Amino acid sequence: MISFDSSLLLGYYQAKSAGQASGTSATGVSTSSASNTSGKKPVPSAPWTGKAGEPSGLVKAALNGRKFVDEGAALAAAPTITGDYKKLFATYQALNTLSAIANRSGEKNVTDSEIKRLQTVFAKGLSDVNSYIQNLSTDAMRLTTGAVMTSDKSSVGVPKNNYAYVTNTLYSGQVDDEVPTFKGNVSFTMDVKKFGVTTSLTMDLSEMGATPRTMSNVVTFFNSKLDAAGFETTFAVERTVGAERTTTVNGQSVKLPPTGDDFALRIRGDSTEALTFAAPAPKPAVYITTAAGNPDPDKDTKTDDAVIENTLTKYGPGTAGQVGTKIFSDTLEGTVSTVHKTMTGPDGSLYVLADVDGATSSQTIKGDQDVALLKYDSVGKLLYARTLGATSTATGYNMAISDTGQVAIAGSVTGKLSGAADGPINSDSAGTLTDSFVTLYNAKGDETWTVRRGGMLEDEATAVAFGQDGVVYVGGRAKSDLPGSANGATQGGYDSYLTGFAADITGAPKALFTTHFGGENNDTVSGIVVNGTQVIVASNEGSEAMLRSFDVSTSIVTEDRTALNDKEVWVTAPVTYTKAATFTAGATRDLGTLQGGNIAGLAIDNGQLYIGGSTTNAALTINNKTAAASGGSDGFAARVSLDLTSTAQDALAYYGGTGDDTVTGMAVSNGQVWLVGAAGKDLGGQATVGDKDGYVAQLDVAAGTVSWQQRLTGKDGYATPTSIAVDASGASSLDAFGLPRGVMDFTQSDKIVSSTSARAGDTFQIRTRARGALTTIKIDANDTLDTLADKIRKASGFAAKVESVSSGNSRSLRISPSQTTSTVEVLPGKGGTDVLEALGLKPGIVRNTKSDHGQTISADGKGPIYGLSLDTTLDLSDDNGRKAASAAMTKALSAVRTAYREMADTANGVKRADATASSGATTGKVPAYLTAQVANYQAALNRLTGGG
H or E segment at 793? Predict the structure, then answer.
């Protein structure tokens, strides 16, 4: 009997079948006498070569509470296994179980209740594996739950100040054509402020005389005025060459010349020159957001196949019989799921409050849905985006803008919200009950503070307004008492509430008072307005439209505060702030039952109170009906006295057709009311445009007349306006040049919490050696890339080299080893505070590399590192998440196989260059070591068979 290594037999058949050559020694059972007599350390069988447990059995065992990571079980399965092999074995078994769970969740006919159980067990297993790997002690190799990198560069950047501005396309055609929008009496004023001195330049195209008003001639005219005044700012023509077109003739593709080039204006600004634009005789501009698209394309209510587009459109003023001119219409980012509110600011900009279900303007989101505040200039250029940063789900219901440009947003939130001032009894951050939130931003768009406040049951903030003395009023609805309420929420269902917030002596938000009100049915606050010390709340109380008045008295004090300044020096300085407030309930007015309708808006204009919405009640209790109802559900707009008592100034105008019409938004300016909503039949006598139209209408409530109206359609013939805002001076000749009204601000916030979805209090961890102490790095409200880079350097003991690198118009972080042998491991933050995704950083190990026998290995000489690339946020609750989880487990299992194979190759004396060259190959030259092994086996086989 001739003894031979059985691994040669496996290698022979693998070679004959073009199998994975490098797996010969790694996957073979090399504990035979031949291996032992050669003096090589035995290599145990890999965990995937033995009899594997059935996936259903693995899932059942996990659901019954069996440990995911169990070195004892690995030892029982392979009694000869030791050292790093045992740890890889245990890791593989745990990942294999997670893979089985992920695959089971993706099978057909799995119930929702089972999905929840699988998700719970999957999350626990993922946590167990991460904890095991992060605390693993190994001898010849290292594992990380993240990636293995030479540098960790952030994929999310902080925008740089960019002193250039490019307008939207003004004209498409030939370079020497006259531009149609430049014809006629068009002019604007450009104020340039330099070193504290403001110079006003009038750009009146009539001064060009007979010179053709082409793009280049107009730019030359502008620059001549700027140059004569001694300024560095210049205009230029931005030209985009038109693309070729194709058509099909007799089945053949034929190229056509382009229709023309696109032309825009470019402003090359200067950091020392501030620019402000204005125009003579401005008129009102109307901004409308619309959700368009067929809600059920395949006519199957069980499928979710709708593709909805949200658009932002600007209209100029309309007149009787003539609709407003469309100035621009842009599609919002595809991640915008719902727009709740639009408002114009004192600087002429437009603010949009929306819910988003994905990254928005490079800001990632942490959960399923977040809130985004989007700021645009008057010609539709996005100036900035701010996301709330909730870890689960957040919805933004309402917004307010102060006279100084501060912005407050309000809504509901579940999950963790780092950096927020929490109420005494907020909902569990791991639960599904909603809490109210309100966030205050300064005029630059930086967050000033956020309050999260809730009761024992669900509540949400649905209205917000600015008051005197720095008070922010928030209204909403709650199913239980809110802390500090002067009265209880005991009327049943949802009750309305009103709370006043103000900053305390430290600048943190404080609730000054809270009161509940409402009826026996579900109630909600629809709007808040403030008139001095008077706060008026509009609410749906059951089916009733109710107005309530409160008189608020504030206490302003000045007290000394001792605190650390930005130079970390203790200083004492006086602080004036609103210390307390009291309220008195005042007059109320019941406007009647809405009969299934809603209140869409509340506003003060020229000393009168305006309210609008929809109703099927043709007899609301408001005097002076100037336009009657048309039947079905109609829109309405009403004017009432601010004292809620006198009816002398009452006016009520219905707006609708013979079908059902709704109101989704209202805006008021100079006594005119604009309504938007879904249009029914015969609305305003206008013909139907699409399958389901929307509308916009301008009403003169006092006269009961319609100034202008228009039916709206959109993608697939479906359109539903979602919000409206009016700027009384927003339409002017500036639109002809694509220039924004007001100050052109080239600067951007450099704060991390403003430019990303990171929140103050979010964290991540680093360490510089395996199983070393973890150092937590916490994001502060005023952190910039520079201050964060300094934190990382210090936390790593300067083992990390941290740079701020530029890419286009943004800057981002790059972490790399500071020395040849330095190693830095970046790990997620704990307790729902992880900030790595928000910063665009990958978890994992960053190290330098060197070449060893043709293979790239770690330069610190401590063995190879294998990355599992496990995402700690994997979720099985939806189909995309289940697919991602299955793919992630497959990748992680592959990494363990690679580690096992390479360790076995090393133990068997296989040169890594040969193993690397043949890894995964099915064709090409057979490695020398394998050729020798096959030859030895062939010789033995010849002796056994007599050479036959």
Answer: helix 785-795
pLDDT band at 928 (very low <50, low <70, confident <90, very high): low
Q: Per residue, what are the HEC states of 130-146? A: HHHHHCCCCCCCEEECC
End-to-end CA distance of the chain: 18
Residue type, 137: S
Give strand pairing partners of 590. 546
What confidence tier does 72 reach under pLDDT thresholds 50, 70, 90? Answer: confident
DSSP 452-470: EE--SS-EEEEEEEE-GGG
Q: Give the tens place of pLDDT for each residue, 859-913.
A: 988 888 999 999 888 889 889 899 999 999 999 999 999 998 888 888 887 765 5
The beta strand positions in 618-757, using DSSP E, are: 625-627, 634-640, 651-655, 665-669, 672-678, 694-700, 705-712, 719-731, 742-744
The 3-state DSSP class for residue 194 equals strand
Confidence (pLDDT) at 647: 96
How far is the C-alpha of 897 from the C-alpha of 88, rounded, in Å?
Answer: 9
Token pair for residue 427? 């909902």
The set of residues, in sequence order, having a beta carbon less than 8 Å from that of 542 and lying 6+ positions away, is: 519, 520, 521, 522, 523
Q: Is 95 helix (H, G, I), strand (E, B) or coil?
A: helix
CA 235, CA 352: separation in Å to the nearest integer? Answer: 30
Angle at which helices 55-63 and 83-105 cross, to 10°: 90
Cα gap 416→757, rounded to integer Å: 13
DSSP character at residue 715? G
Phi-psi region of 340 (alpha: psi -120 to 50; beta: other; left: phi over 0): alpha
Distance CA 237, CA 911 (A): 62
Residues 356-399: tens digit of each pLDDT: 999 998 788 988 999 999 999 999 999 999 999 999 999 999 99
CA distance 882 to 877: 7
Residues making up the chain, counted from first to last = 948
What pLDDT is attached to residue 26?
Answer: 36
With DSSP H G I counted as helix, E B as strand and the rest as coil, what are the percentages for the chain, rounded to 5? 20, 40, 40
Which pair of tokens denotes residue 643? 């004292």
**Strand 844-847 versus strand 147-149 pairing type:** parallel
The radius of gyration computed from the CA coordinates of the chain, to the nearest angstrom, equals 34
Q: Which of 360, 448, 429 is nearest to 757 (CA)?
A: 360
Instruction: For residue 721, give the nearest of 685, 683, 766, 670 by alpha carbon.
Output: 683
Which amino acid, one-letter code, is at 538? A
Cβ contact 378:742 at 8 Å: yes
332 vs 299: which has the higher pLDDT: 332
C-alpha 410/C-alpha 465 separation (Å) is 10
Closest CA to 650 of 612, 623, 620: 623
In the predicted model, is pLDDT for residue 536 greater than 50?
yes
Q: What is the pLDDT of residues 171-221, one digit of tens each?
A: 999 999 999 999 999 999 999 999 999 999 999 999 999 999 999 999 999
Chain centre distance of CA 541: 34
What is each CA distance from 200 to 192, 218, 277, 347, 936, in whole angstroms?
A: 6, 18, 10, 18, 93
Label residue 570 exposed, middle or buried (CB < 10 Å: 0-12, 13-18, 19+).
Answer: exposed
| Residue 817 contacts residue 799 (beta carbons within 8 Å) | yes
Relative to beta strand 336-344, strand 634-640 is unpaired
Structure tokens at 703: 């006269």
Helix axes 83-105, 879-907, angle to 10 degrees: 160
C-alpha of 828 from chain center: 19
Query: Which 3 state secondary structure label does DSSP give 336?
Result: strand
Q: What is the model's pLDDT at position 617? A: 96
Q: Dihedral, CA atoms, 249, 250, 252, 253, nearest 10 degrees?
A: 20
CA dihedral 667, 669, 671, 676 (to 10 degrees): -20
